[in-house]
Amino acid sequence: MEAKIRRWELAGAIFIILVGSALHFAFARSGYWRPMAVVAPVNESVWEHLKLGFWPGLAFTLIEYAALRKRVNNYWIAKSAALFSIPALIVALFYAYTAIAGDNVLAADIVVFVVSVGVGQWISYRTLLAQKAPSSIGGMAVVALVIMVAAFSLLSYHPLRLSLFRDPVTGEYGILDAYPVNH
Asked: What is the residue extent of each domain of the chain?
């Protein structure tokens, strides 16, 4: 069973990386269709790029659920931990390397994304193999997932005025600054 879980988590990493990479261009390719802003970056801010790991990760979580839910421990805990850790690692690694380098570098951004997805899937794998946690923790994990979905759904439309949400190219925040309603 351990090998099967490992294969699923590796497949998840590949899926997240490929779909996340495609999502980078989805908003522009959709003709700037406003609903696409929920899942695709609307600008070059760090926040918007976190969607590249989160939404494909959530999609794979739902796909994987049918195959593994009855065969593993801690499914929702594992997936919540992975879906939280991927964006958290992207933020930490991005700001760490740009503090050292002085600016962002596309190749380094890609490495940060791939490493973050890999670590997130590894966390999921280890959690799926761990002893069964109390059901209350599983419930908290589901609540955490719901909060993450709400945050990723709403904060492109109503971003906080923090550097995490600021487009370094235009200085704008979210879709409403970049693409006003009357645009």
From this structure: 2-178
